[in-house]
Amino acid sequence: MVTHEKIFRMTRIAIMGTVLYAAQAVFAFLPNIEIVTLLIVIFTKHTGKDGITACFVYVTLNAIFAGVGLWWATYIIVWPLFALLAYKLRNINSWIIWAIINGAFGLCFGAIFALPYIVVSPTYALSYWISGIQYDILHCAGNFTAALLLGKPIDTAFKRIIADNKI
What we know:
Number of domains: 1
Radius of gyration: 16 Å
């Protein structure tokens, strides 16, 4: 039976996934600068496993609007795994620590994306990763800065939204 609570949760998951996609679209003109990582941390800290499920909505929206390729197969693994990490670390209250975690994730992003290419050739995978390392460094700096500057204010606002049962 579909209850009011189930409908509420499904709606909340859909909204969070859509916000992740919209946040990506807003920053798409900047190379490897995004707030998706930060939002995943905040959503997962406050909604638990619903934040992880929202990542699948986000990845699905990417497939709908950008198509499916090898990059998408990596998305379907990398974003929910990051959300799972955020879920496991959800009791961390220091935004300096979250900034370090988000920065480290940005730095590792290209290496994670290179993993499927190991099937083609380990040398190709390594060269793929190295050729994009400058973008990983930018990704690291962007994630670190976003979490450091925006983490606490967005977290506080989202806590209020959750407390008022508005999402």
